[in-house]
Amino acid sequence: MLDVHPAHHAANSWRDFFVHIATIALGLLIAVGLEQTVEWVHHRHQLHQLEEDLHAEGLRNLHVALDNIAYMEQVRNYYAAQYAELVRASRAHRAPAGLTPHLPKGVRYIKPAYAVWTVAQQSGTLGLLPREDAQRYVRLYSVVQMAADRLDIMNDASRQAAVSRFPGVSDPSTSDAFLAAIRSPEGSTYALLDPEDLRRARDSLGRELAAYRFSISTNVNLYGIEWASLHGSRSDEENVRILYDAASLYNGSGVAALLAKYPMPDAPAQNTEPEQQSH
Q1: What range does the domain containing 45 cover?
Q2: Is 7 inside a domain boundary?
Q3: Please, where are the H alpha helices in the chain?
Q4: Does some domain include residue 266?
Q5: 28 in a domain, yes or no?
Q6: Per residue in 137-185, pLDDT tens?
Q7: What is the DSSP string of 163-230?
Q8: The whole model's pTM is what?
Q9: CA atoms within 13 Å, Cβ hemisphere of 45
């Protein structure tokens, strides 16, 4: 708050009057200038902190995307082998054979982080970002949200596939019957299904396989756009170009080609907590 004190004595002339007015005006200008300077310094500090936090969150998501791709490639291959055998068995009018499915252990799908962006939206600090930076972060975090949403989509596909296999569980009354339907240990679940149940199980497995393939693509896109942002891209157009280029490289030659052109930064990955899936 700015305090303006009256003169200690009345002005005796116009000259004294204007001197008092000038003194008050100068004092106000100095006070307002100091206040604005303090506010500018504070905003600059907030902006630098926000940029650092967004950079750290982006680095974390870069590692998350790559870990998710590696995990989902294993699961995709697992489901693809199952699905191919179910198709072969259906065409040959025989029972499926050689199915010993075991999901990869020790890893899970990890939701990418978006806490910094969310807090910045709620606190209003996003207004400190230059217009171009705000625009590119809007697209970037839309990809982050898509990758986060994939967890619920994959879990839903897994639950539907489990329900389709449930008629083949040898003892549905057991407490782990649903888990057995999900994991289908040693292929015994498929062996107990009749032809119509097998068709439903195959179709549900196909949808589950498609869900994982799309999730891989989403995380490849996340890797590409995060990489662009972390390596100095200052425009939405450049981010999108690198995103599509990363997807093209991965679709053509896999992770090796992706990392050859867009390698991981030297900074170590931050600790991440896995999100549990219904497997």
Answers
A1: 14-261
A2: no
A3: 14-92, 115-123, 131-165, 177-183, 188-191, 195-230, 236-261
A4: no
A5: yes
A6: 999 999 999 999 999 999 899 888 888 877 776 666 665 655 655 555 4
A7: HHHGGG-S-TTSTTHHHHHHH-GGGHHHHT--HHHHHHHHHHHHHHHHHHHHHHHHHHHHHHHHHHHH
A8: 0.78
A9: 6
